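We modelled the chain as a single entity of 103 amino acids. Its sequence is:
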Amino acid sequence: MMARRTTLLVAVLLSAGAIAAPALSSAGVSVDIDVAPPAPQVEVVPGPRAGWVWAPGYWGWGGHAHVWHRGYWIRERPGFHWAPDAWVQVGPHWHYAPGHWER
């Protein structure tokens, strides 16, 4: 009886995960704040790597303050270029635009 309940519980949880996953994967990040980001930190950009693109560091928002995220390598996508994370001033507010691939 206990094994049957456990199997049923696992089946329900897996089904819920399968339904929720597509919704979570399409969620976007939208951050608008009244605090300007600090100047970018100086990063030493490593030399080129074949098949990889350097995503530069950026200031993210940690809920109460800006938090620096170091740059990192991402696998190249032929026909696309990387648009880095950025803060854009819109009136008195600052809008966060996450890094993304563009054609």
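As a brief sanity check on the tokenised model: Helices lie at 2-25. Confidence is low (pLDDT under 50) at residues 6-26.
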